[in-house]
Amino acid sequence: MKKPNLDKKIAFGALAIMFAALLWSIDGVFIRPKFYTLSAPLVVFLEHLLGFIVLSPFIILGWKKIKMLNKKTWIAIFWVCVFGGVLGTIMITKAFFAAVAGETTFSTVIILQKLQPIFALILARLILREKLSKNFYIWALLGIIAAYFLAFGKTGLNLSELNLLHNAAFFAIIAAFSFGSSTVFGKRIVNHLDFKLTTALRFGITGIMVFILILFTGDIAKITELTALHWQLLALIVFTSGAGAMFIYYFGLRRVTASTATIAELFWPFSAVILDYIINKNVLNTTQIIAALILLIAFYKVVSQGKVKNITFKAKVMKGAGRGKNLGFPTANLDQENLDISHGVYLAETKINNQTHQGLLHFGYKETFNEKPSLELHIKNFSQDILGQEIEVKIIKKIRDIKKFKSVDELKEQIQKDINSTK
């Protein structure tokens, strides 16, 4: 059997997401329950407001890139803010508040909310076209099942405790869909925008949306109910499970597929039982130990098999400004706007007149960052006129990220190095 090739960049991204999940587990167990007597939308607004205050410098520094975002990226940003920021956060907060108050069982909330990776895997396949290996999906499913046994291994997964008729069950399902879809659309955003700016935009826009909501509902008046402890905990949330965790999460999401990210997020139940052991000295039973081992193996397997390869798309060749030709490396400007890959330079192949040609694909901003992102293909040892034709391009692998160059000569030297890598 061929040993899985563990990509260091993907592994580092997955570890970042796991660390963010650890912070979220600490929040859910030790911090969030302290707010259960307050309005859920008010709590969500305050944590986003404080988080945005900390992140706002990134908006100023990245304003030029914000103005260049296309419609598709803006739709993804608003989706993440509405579903992940507003709806999902409020729904899961209300669900857990109901469980803390004894209106429903924690099992109801946790079991239904853990449908999140199922939603994410399906949507990643449909929306981002993430087609991964069969083994990836097998280990992903095993990881999801192991997470359930890990969470309920001590008390047992008693389905009779499920209260599907309570509002909290509906809240948990909506939260699962919201967070799962936000992972997918979040991946689309960080493909085209750096993680710092993505986090800042999410907190800023979400904060505005929730502020309008609490003005409409009158919850803004309940801010006087916050105690000094609540404000201290909100400040803690900003730098841990709130803006801090989301900052780390988007850093990781940029480096992995959405499918890999949603499994890495299952580090939440794993970290929760470890914290329970460290703090409360509750020893794991045999079922939980086996589930924990399977989950750890699943993490390794999905990370090692979580790379999407050989993405193929069709695009029409458009007339460009001719700058590539002036540099000595002519490019075909492509009109494809629905490409869900990260900005960068890729090894690629294209088939023209039944002949396959190697080349380089540049997707992203120009080296000056003064123009909107472009999609350009340099076809090696090719001089035919293909303007107006539709060509098929197969992406082989990513070579590097987009970067600035100090001079034209430095740019040309880098392009030549990239071309040499096609040999």
Structural class label: alpha+beta
Overall mean pLDDT score? 85
What value does the Rg take, in angstroms?
24 Å
Estimate the global geometry from the Cα principal axes: globular
Structure explained in plain terms:
- This protein has about 425 residues and is an alpha+beta fold.
- It has 2 domains: about 10-305, no CATH class; about 310-420, Beta Barrel (Elongation Factor Tu (Ef-tu), domain 3).
- About 60% of the residues lie in helices and about 10% in strands.
- It has 16 helices and 6 strands.
- Strands 1-2-5-4-3-6 form a 6-stranded antiparallel barrel.
- The longest helix is centred in the first third of the chain and has 30 residues, at about 70-100.
- The mean pLDDT is about 85.
What are its keywords?
6-stranded antiparallel beta barrel; globular; 423 residues; 16 helices; alpha+beta; single chain; Elongation Factor Tu (Ef-tu), domain 3
Quick overview:
The chain is 59% helix and 11% strand.
Please render the helix and strand layout as text.
Elements: H1 8-31, H2 40-61, H3 63-67, H4 71-100, H5 106-113, H6 116-127, H7 134-152, H8 167-192, H9 195-217, H10 228-239, H11 243-253, H12 258-264, H13 267-280, H14 286-304, E1 311-318, H15 323-327, E2 332-334, E3 344-352, E4 355-364, E5 374-379, E6 390-400, H16 408-420
Antiparallel strand pairs: 1-2, 1-6, 2-5, 3-4, 3-6, 4-5
Helix pairs in contact: 1-11, 1-13, 2-9, 2-10, 4-8, 4-9, 5-8, 6-8, 6-12, 7-13, 7-14, 8-12, 9-11
